[in-house]
Design a protein that fits this description.
about 500 residues; alpha+beta; two-stranded antiparallel sheet; about 40% helix; about 25% strand
C-alpha cells in the first residue's frame, strides 16, 4: 500500500496508575502520543515499554516501545499550569483488550502484503460459467424463490450466467519452528441485490503458534517469511493490515497492530508467472521451500537480511548495495564451505617459520603487541577461504545446466569481488575508476544472482522447473539473458584499462 495511513485516538492514558488526557496520532513515521495533565508526572523506562489507554470510543490502546521526544515539560497561561509529554511509539495495538509486549499471549498473527494475490495466484477460486447447463432442481427452486415478486414471464426462460466462489481451503500450509503458517483467501461478500454482485478477495498470511508467543517472537516469524516472499516475488513488499488473536479471545475479535516506523512503499508490479515459485501454481513446492526457509532462519537469517537490504531496492543501485551483496556470503554458516586442502609442505613450513618469528618478536616487544596481533590476524586470513573463494564455491554448487548457460560466471564473480574490494580497501583491479562505477549494477546483479539461486536451492527450490518456464520479465531471467552482452562490455572495459596502462608506462632505457 503506497498511501499514508492516518488514524487518531483521543482518550485517557495511564502512567503509574494515574490517568491523563492524551491524543495518539498514527501517521507512518510521524506518529506521536501527546499526554497532558494538570499535575506533574514522570515517565521512566518501564513506562515507555508499554503505555495503556482507552479511547473515547472505548477501544483499548497499547502504545509499545515509546521513545520520548524533546518536547516535554510544562506551560503556563494566566496562572493555569499544564504538564505535557510527546512520545513516539514503535508499535500500537488497538482493540477490545490490551497487549503487553512481553506476555506470551498471542495465539496467531495475520497480515497481508501488496503482492500477495499475485504471489499466491489461486486460479479456480473465482469463476464464471457461461455455457448452458442443467441445474439441480434445488438450485432452480432457490432462484425462483428469490424472484417470486417478478412477473410470471420474467420467471421463465432467459440465459443464466453463473458466477462462483470455490472455497477449497488454504492455498498453502507449512510448518514453522513454533507452529504453522497458512495462506488463505479472505473473501468479503455483499448480499446480492439489483445493483449487482460484489465480492472482494484478499490473500492473507496467518502465523499460528503451538504455544502462545510474545509480540517480538511473533513478528520475527512474520519478517522471516516476508524475506522469502520478497525474494520469490523479486519485489520489495510491506506488512499490511496486521491483526493479532490473543489467547482466550474469539477469532472474530482480533486486535489491530500498527507498526509505526516501517516502510510504506513497494517496488515494481509483481506478475504471477515471473515469480520464482508461485504459491498458487506451485503450492507443494512453495510450502516445502518456505518451511525449510523458516526452519533455517536462525543460523541463516543474518546473511539473508543483509542480502535483502540491497536486493529489495530493485533498479536503484549504489556502492553500498554492492558491498552488502558481497558481505552476505561472509555471514553464511561456516559449514556451507569446504575448507581448503592442506598446503604444500614447503608452504606450510614457511607459514610455521613466519608465525614463530612473529610470536618470538611479540614476546620480546610486549609494548608492540597490538601491531604484532595484526600480523598474526593477517597470517590467519591468508590460510582460510577468502570472500572470492567462498562465492566461487557457492556457484560451483549450482546445477550443470546453469553453468552451461553462464560459462563465464566465475570470471564475473572475480571482477565483482575485486570491485567490492576497490570500494572498501582501494585495491586496484583491471578496470579504470570510471568503469568501476559504471559496472556496479552488473557486479551487484551478479552477486545477488548467485546468492538468490544458491540460497533457494539450499531450501529445496526446483530451479530446473523454473528454468523451463518461458516467462520473460523475471529479473533473474533478464540477468541470464543479458549476461553475454555484459561480459562483452566488461572485456571492452578491461581492454581500455590495459591500453591506458600501456600508454602511461615509462619508456624503456
Amino acid at each position: 500500500m503506497n498511501e499514508s495511513k492516518q488514524t487518531r485516538f483521543i482518550g485517557s492514558f495511564t502512567i503509574k496508575g494515574a490517568g491523563h488526557h492524551g491524543s495518539l496520532q498514527i501517521d507512518d513515521h510521524d506518529s506521536t502520543l501527546d499526554i497532558y495533565s494538570d499535575n506533574f508526572f514522570n515517565i521512566d523506562d518501564d513506562d515507555l515499554r508499554c503505555i495503556k489507554g482507552i479511547s473515547k470510543e472505548g477501544a483499548r490502546v497499547s502504545a509499545i516501545e515509546c521513545i520520548p521526544s524533546s518536547i516535554c515539560g510544562r506551560s503556563s497561561y494566566h496562572g493555569i499550569i499544564k504538564h505535557y509529554a510527546t512520545l513516539h511509539p514503535n508499535f500500537v495495538v488497538v482493540g477490545h483488550d490490551y497487549l503487553d509486549p512481553n506476555d506470551n499471549c498471542i495465539e496467531s498473527i495475520s497480515f497481508t502484503f501488496p503482492a500477495a494475490k499475485n504471489l499466491f495466484y489461486d486460479l479456480g477460486t473465482f469463476g464464471h460459467i457461461r455455457e448452458k447447463r442443467d441445474l439441480p432442481l434445488s438450485y432452480i427452486r432457490q432462484m425462483l424463490r428469490s424472484a417470486k415478486g417478478s412477473p410470471r414471464k420474467r420467471r421463465r426462460g432467459g440465459t443464466i450466467d453463473l458466477y462462483y466462489r470455490w472455497d477449497r481451503g488454504p492455498i498453502i500450509e507449512c510448518d514453522h519452528p513454533f507452529g504453522k503458517l497458512t495462506a488463505w483467501n479472505a473473501t468479503a461478500e455483499r448480499l446480492t441485490y439489483p445493483g449487482g454482485i460484489s465480492l472482494d478477495n484478499q490473500v492473507r498470511i496467518t502465523v499460528s503458534f503451538t504455544d502462545p508467543s510474545s509480540l517480538g517472537k511473533s513478528l520475527k516469524i512474520c519478517y522471516d517469511a516476508m524475506g522469502f516472499f520478497e525474494l520469490t516475488a523479486q519485489s520489495r513488499q510491506i506488512l499490511d493490515e496486521i491483526t493479532i488473536t490473543k489467547l482466550g479471545s474469539e477469532e472474530f475479535l482480533p486486535l489491530q497492530l500498527y507498526i509505526v516506523n516501517t516502510e510504506t512503499t513497494t517496488r515494481d508490479k509483481v506478475i504471477p508467472g515471473d515469480t520464482l515459485i508461485n504459491g498458487g501454481m506451485h503450492s507443494e513446492e512453495f510450502s516445502s521451500v518456505l518451511s525449510s526457509w523458516l526452519f533455517t532462519s536462525e543460523e541463516r537469517g543474518p546473511p539473508r537480511r543483509r542480502f535483502s537490504e540491497g536486493a529489495r531496492e530493485g533498479n536503484n543501485y549504489t556502492i553500498n548495495r554492492l558491498i552488502s551483496a558481497a558481505n552476505s556470503f561472509d555471514l553464511l554458516p561456516k559449514l556451507d564451505f569446504v575448507k581448503p586442502e592442506s598446503l604444500p609442505e614447503k608452504v606450510q613450513s614457511l607459514y610455521n617459520e613466519i608465525e614463530s618469528k612473529i610470536r618470538l618478536f611479540k614476546a620480546e616487544n610486549i609494548d608492540l603487541g597490538e601491531y604484532v596481533q595484526r600480523l598474526l590476524n593477517n597470517l590467519g586470513h591468508s590460510r582460510s577461504l577468502n570472500l572470492r573463494a567462498k562465492i566461487l564455491q557457492k556457484w560451483d554448487s549450482t546445477p550443470p545446466f546453469l553453468k552451461e548457460k553462464l560459462p563465464r560466471m566465475p570470471e564475473a564473480i572475480v571482477f565483482s569481488v575485486n570491485c567490492r574490494n576497490f570500494f572498501v580497501h582501494g585495491a586496484e583491479f583491471k578496470l579504470s575508476r570510471t568503469d568501476a562505477h559504471e559496472f556496479v549494477p552488473f557486479f551487484t546483479d551478479t552477486l545477488e544472482f548467485v546468492f538468490s539461486v544458491t540460497e533457494l536451492t539450499y531450501c529445496g527450490w526446483d530451479i530446473g522447473r523454473w528454468n523451463k518456464d518461458a516467462y520473460s520479465s523475471s529479473p533473474l531471467k533478464n540477468y541470464m539473458r543479458n549476461f553475454s552482452m555484459n561480459m562483452i562490455q566488461l572485456d571492452a572495459g578491461t581492454a581500455r584499462y590495459k591500453a591506458k596502462k600501456g600508454n602511461s608506462a615509462p619508456p624503456e632505457s
